[in-house]
Amino acid sequence: MTSKIFSLILVFTTGLSFSQNAEPIYFDKNWKETSKAKASFYRINPSKKLDDLVLIEDFYLNKTPQFQGYSFQNDENSYVGDIVWYDGNGFDLSVYQFYNNSAASVLTYYYPDGKKLKTIPYKKGKKDGEHIVYHQDGTILIKGKYSKGKPVEGDFEEVRNWEDYRSNKSESEANEENELLTEATPVVEYSAGTKKKVITKIIKSKIFWINSKQLAQETWYDIEYDRMHRFKQVNYDVTGKILQTIGQADFEEYSGNISNGIAYEYYVQNQFAVAIKSKTAYKGREKSGEKIKYYPNGKIQEFTKYINGKIVDDEIVYDKNGTVMQKRTYKDGEPFEGNFNENFSGSLIINSNYVKGLKEGEAIVKTDEDSIVTKGIYKNNKPYKGTFIVKTGEDTHELIQVTDFKKNGLQKIFNCNIDNIIETYTCVNDIVDGETIFYSNGEITGKIEYKNGLPYNGKLVEGETATVYKQGAITDEIFYRNKYERTDENDILKSKSFTNGKLTKIVNSSFTIADKVQDSYEGIYKNEQPYSGYFSTEQREFNYVDYYENGIKKYQYSNNYLENLEKYQHPYYDIKSTYKEGKIIDGVEYIKLDRQFISKYWKNGVLQSYDVDLFAMHYFNRFHFELKNNSIEITEFKKKQKGRITREKIGDKYTSQLIIGDKVVMSSSSIDLDNEMPEQMGSIMYYESDQIIKAKVIDSKETDYEGRRESEMFYEIFASTVNSSKTTEENFNSIAQDFSTSKNIEAMFGKGDNADVLTGLRFNELKKPEMGILVVKSNSTSYNLKSFFDGKVLEEKKNIDIKNIREEVKKLNSVLEKKLNESFK
């Protein structure tokens, strides 16, 4: 018996011919004109004309609508305004909006029986003005106002992205002239004593039940930051009974999806609800509760239950009469027992059987149009016999042919679209053997013959690289700018040549040298080592080129990498450095470690200055070091500060000083460990390195904590690396060496677990020990330790061997920390 819903469809899809003065135009299934007897579709003839447009109205042979939309008269494939395709039941299948750059400023659409459905005004290609939707009796159902394509006032059939317009090629120039839409943020109010937003201006989208003036769904929106935010929704049944009301807190803040409540989906024709298609319960953003799919006749098609986003229990599938067709059992949200349809890549659906969570038996892959793509048998969750589609990477899939668990025959690799094959290869018992072909946009980009799983003859294409083989040996390796241009020989970055499988030459077009501009640069290898010509590094952020003559490095070509970070794809090298005996003696030497980049500037083999660039998450800073007037000048670029490290002789000892501005803020001098109880100002720092303990006195003159903090890195560099027993030039080179070799910046500054710092001792104003550990040499291999707290001796340990000194210091520090914590209570 025909359902009430389909009876309604038949009622409003009959009576079309009364207004027709000519025989319809008939088309076959491929949309070729044909006779009525061979037709699958027909088109109203003559079509309605509007200025330079024609309204195309196509139908299935049973008078169910198939398409409605405007096109230019001179090109029916150049769509204008709203267009809609319908499925075989007459329900909306695909709806799009196109720019309207025609002579018609208002477009009118019609019900299948020819009555006026809606009018939409346009300005500068976009919807602009009062949009009206009519009931079949001619009364107004919906009225809303557009401005520059954006719904701004009243009611609408649908609220969509107002910038989501499609273009025809013939309209490209006109669309480029359309200025981008900008809207001011709406005025909103906040109720007293609360942060809850009060919406002061709303628009609504309304879905009516078909052939009725009864609402099915009404949704409220507010406009904010050029986005439509749902803040209320009410759903009704066909009698007007309220099914649910959900409010602002029930929608996700950014996506606008329902987070608490029921999401209704309808079978619609011309955006009128014919029946409920599905309803899905959500709680806390996740599916939780029932999800029910319906047939158009109202019978349940599929029933699924969710808890916290995962399917639980049995999923049941019914036929149109309500008889159970299938039961599918899930475990932990994954298929466990039964027959399942799972969405796969693109429009593919895989139907397979599961037994205790493993695929078993026949599996069929179909398109969403129900065409069979593959069919195969699984055993123990593995492809056993037939054809299969399997996921092999993040965006790659394979269509494989399998016999007795092994790949045999032609195999195909594709990304997301099965029609876009990127590679085919042949297997014999799971081993690649035969011709492999590579494709890009349907065109062959390479062919290679495999023997017993190894490349033998031809071109192997992988990503941006192509490798050429002859008789099983590599002859050439070609690197392209990107994988999409690897068919164009003009887009080759570099190529490598091999003889008897050994690298002999490289031709590089990926850079330009300022004092020798040419299209490409050649480098010759001998015994697979650079011998003569130009050889580029393979780094990403920073590259340079070394030039060789007769196996000896002569020059290096580079640039200011900070100024050229955005030009790393084709760097321009305008800095030339000279090598001697494998070391740069004139120009810039570069050293890159995990968290620092050092640029050393040499002249005649003497280090003149260096830059230390430090990197961390969301952090960059550069320190410039330079020898000036017998002092080390340091410039910090981030804070635009300068400091100096000097050295002078006081009595029979040398003292190093850190000067910021004109003020000495810290001093340091080396001491020996033979004195039982030195009298000092400041603190003694003890260092252990290579089984030797050294010490230096550090005296901070800066009493202002904020001032100390502002120049913290200067203090750290001075305290951790400067040795007053060394000359200024020796310290300058020593600091450079420390930065150039240390992979742990924290350890360099005495903060890391691998630091050389052993312990320390702080003195008071009377030059007496106050807090810490005193280290005194007892003989050539052992030391005495004495810990102080609050000016008093806490503990002593004598004749500690150098091998055990770290462990004993650790024990003493543990006692000190405990005392310190107790004093704070």
Automatic annotation (TrEMBL):
Q: What stretches pass through the bilayer?
A: none
Return the InterPro entries for the record: MORN_2
* Pfam family name, one: MORN_2
Recite the UniProt keywords alphabetically.
Signal
* Signal sequence residues: 1-22
Q: What is this protein called?
A: Antitoxin component YwqK of YwqJK toxin-antitoxin module
Q: Which organism is it from?
A: Flavobacterium azizsancarii
